[in-house]
Structure formats: C-alpha cells, structure tokens
Amino acid sequence: xxxxxxxxxxxxxxxxxxxxxxxxxxGDSVTLHTHLTELKxxxxxxxxxxxxxxxxxxxxxxxxxxxYDPDERFTDRLKMNPQTADLTITDITSQHTGLYxxxxxxxxxxxxSSFSTFSVSLSPEVKIVKxxDSVTLHxxxxxxxxxxxxxxxxxxxxxxxxxxxxxxGKISTHLIEERFRDRLKLDDQTGSLTITHMKNEDxxxxxxxxxxxxxxxxxxxxxxxxSGHSSGVIPVMCVSLLLLVIAAVVGVVIYRRRKMRHRxxxxxxxxxxxxxxxxxxxxxxxxxxxxxxxxAGTYFEQGVL
Length: 305
Prior knowledge:
The protein has helices spanning about 1-15, 60, 235-275, and strands at about 20-25, 30, 40-50, 50-60, 65-70, 80, 85-90, 100-105, 110-120, 130, 135, 150-155, 160-165, 170-175, 185, 195, 205-210, 215-225, 280, 290-295, 300-305. The chain is an alpha+beta fold. It folds into 4 domains: about 1-125, Immunoglobulins (Immunoglobulin-like); about 125-230, Immunoglobulin-like; about 235-270; about 275-305, no CATH class. Strand 19 (about 280) and strand 20 form a beta hairpin. The N and C termini lie far apart (about 140 Å).
C-alpha cells in the first residue's frame, strides 16, 4: 500500500500536479477515461480520490466486476465500466471536486504499471432558461485541449438533437432535428456551446455529452422551462403598459373637460328661459312697448311697434 501511495505521489510530478483539468457544473456527471478498449492483459485498475481508495477492478480476484470502497461522499454516485474501467461520477457537488488518480497494472508481454491524474472542479452554470433567451454550456477547455477533438452529443427528451465535432478549430455540425438549424453556436476557442432563441417546444430536459480528446467525457444536464417572458421582452411590456396608462389618463381629462363645458352651457340656457322682466311698460295708445330682461349679466331690450 505504501509503495502504491508513493508511486501515486511520484505520478503527480510526472503528469503535473493537476494532470488533466476537468471543469463541470454542480449536479453534472463526468466520466474519466482510462484509454483502454479492453482489459486483456490488465490485472488491476484502481481509482483514488485525494489519496483515498474509492473503486477498483481486480481481475485476479473477481474477474471484471467493479468493487467500490465505502465512502458516504460517493454513495450511489460511482459507476465503473467493466469493459474499459472508465469511472463515472454522477451528481457532482463541491465535495467531489479535487484530484482523482488512476493506477493500472498488468502483464502484456512484461509487467507494466501506469498512472494518470484528473483534477475535477466546479464552474457556474445556468440550468433554467426562459423562452426566447439563450443558454451557454461552458466546458472551459485548456490551451492544450483546444487542439484536441471536442465531440458534443446533444439530446432533448432522450432523443438525439445534434452532434458537433471540432478538430483544430474546424467545426463540423450534424443536425438530427432541423428546428435547431442556425441556433447552435460552438466557440472554437473555449469549446462552449450556445443554443439561441429557445422556443416553447424546446422545453424539457437536455443532456450533453462532451468528449475532450480521449481523456474524459463531461455529462451536462439542464432544463428549459417557459417561466415567463424573456428579459428582452419585459422592458418593452413595461413601456407599452406605461403608454396605455398615460393614454387612459389623457382620455379621462378630455372627457371631464367636455362634460364641464356642456354642463355650463346648459346652465346658461336655463337661466335665460326663467328670468322675469325687470320692467314692462305698456303704451295704451299702441305706439310702443318695451320688455327688458336680465340674463347672465346682460340686458336685452325687446320692442314692439
């Protein structure tokens, strides 16, 4: 045991303290690859986490059946492929970040032993997006990984959507669902994928398997839900609502002014009809008669010849 631990420490200096860097999001899964296509000639495969033994396949003892060490942090989270010994860690949280070490030994025409290291860390990720908005899935490839093949396999509701492969900056896209045409954008510098203009029919769970070179595969999951209008629509709605309120206020003011004018006009007409004459002089000789009325502050004379 001490010998293996010493070899693991030495491997850190050979491969670099951090080895292959893997950046995932909280709740995602990641598969760490052994580079093996079969276990022929391999006797022992061991996985370690921060110096603690977590999983192994000992073909001399139990054929190719994986054995997992009791560790509450990894309960129901580890899955070791019996054909390749690749290790998958599901539902990753902050307590699963750190240094993973791989030890392989066997006899292929002579005894051999190899060591690899993987540094797993968390990065922030948007999991809930709104209709008409965009979502970007970050994988944060390193400068060394940028020239490797990056292979995206995207599924929506368990059905394949598209495959995107980039090699040395050249991007090749294979669409399975045409509704995603011109909406998938891959950043050839970072390897991140953006899905633009999410629609209502795009709602539901998504899965994305991102294989970088032949070292590891990141399993990303996110959900699209129609939780309301997009951030770009909300300001437009607010402005429209404000204009409607202003128009309603102006309409009420105009209506009240017209109503007051109509009421004042009716009052003036009623006053003229009900006023009594101030003076009524009757000329008995039929020569002349004058009636004087006072209405709304004005004197009117009415004469009859």
